[in-house]
Amino acid sequence: MPKIPETRYRSCTDDPYFGPVKQILTALLCLSLLADTATAQEWLDKDLIVFYNGRQAIFPAEWKKVKARPARMEFFHSDTAALLRALEMYPPSLIRKHLSRIYVVGSLRWGGQQFYGTNSRRNIYIEGGDSVQTNHTFHHEFSSILLRNLPNGDLKWEWQKRSPRLVNRSSAAAMWLGYSATALNEKLMEDGYLCDYSLSNWENDFNMYAEYIFCGGAAFWKLVDKYPLVKKKVGLVINFYNTQVSHIYRESFFREVAGL
After folding, report:
1. Alpha-carbon gap, residue 8 to 201, rounded angstroms
2. Reduced to 3 states, what is the DSSP secondary structure of residue 151?
3. How far is CA 179 from CA 2, 153, 204, in A?
4. Coil/strand/helix, residue 117
5. Is 207 buried (19+), middle (13-18) or exposed (0-12) by CB count in 10 A?
6. Model-level pTM?
7. Best mean pLDDT range from 15-24, 108-117, 221-230
């Protein structure tokens, strides 16, 4: 996910909140996944969330153009809390199977562009320092891992059929061309895209939708109801999560999490 100097739409749902939402979510997950439990302490004990001190070798060897600065300890507690809240949104067995480490770094650059996050086969790398953004970024990056690791049938074809304006470039290349803004853009939503960055390629477009169905709050769902092409893509995302992750992921679930 690119990092750019703009005021992004903030929710999830504007952080310290999450009390009532967390209660709803916990109750739903407990009812649906009785045998699939985990606690925040389990993730901490397993060192799932890692503070990057600048000395560890954290990236795949073939990644030659990625650079990260050490994380800042003064933000690590709030970043960890945000990530634990994000993890609560998924069945623990899914996390255990598909995620090895979440590295919190100080900054992240790839191909000369700055990003909030990226992912490898089983790891996520997130720039810390903003708990709301950290939450958004986790859902964004984890959706890529799930796309790679879980069956998705004709999803790519269905998505591209609804996305004729995609430029089909890598994230960094698209950003060099100006497709970097991640703030919700209602003009683009008329055509089914959430923001400029969504136009880069189908996976980034999907990632933005995944991020916002988990973190967009009530304001996002009002936009979903306003723009038919956005609603169709939301349906594709929810169908993927419902059929490949857990049947708990229905539109009603996400709307309830958003407080609707």
Report:
1. 20
2. coil
3. 10, 28, 11
4. strand
5. buried
6. 0.88
7. 221-230
CA atoms within 13 A on the CB side of 163: 26
DSSP conformation letters of 95-144: HHHH--EEEEESEEEETTEEBSEEE-SSEEEEE-S-HHHHHHHHHHHHHH
Q: How confident is the model at residue 3 (pLDDT cuts 50, 70, 90)?
A: low
**Token output for 105:** 């770094």
Q: How many CB atoms lie within 10 A of CB 104?
A: 26
SS3 16: coil
Helix (H) or strand (E) holding 255: helix 251-257
Tracing tokens 């490949």 back to the chain, one arrives at: 244
**Burial of 128 from C-beta contacts in 10 A (0-12 / 13-18 / 19+):** buried
Structure tokens that stand for 147 in this block: 């796309």
* Distance from C-alpha of 113 to C-alpha of 172, rounded to nearest angstrom: 6
Amino acid at 104: V
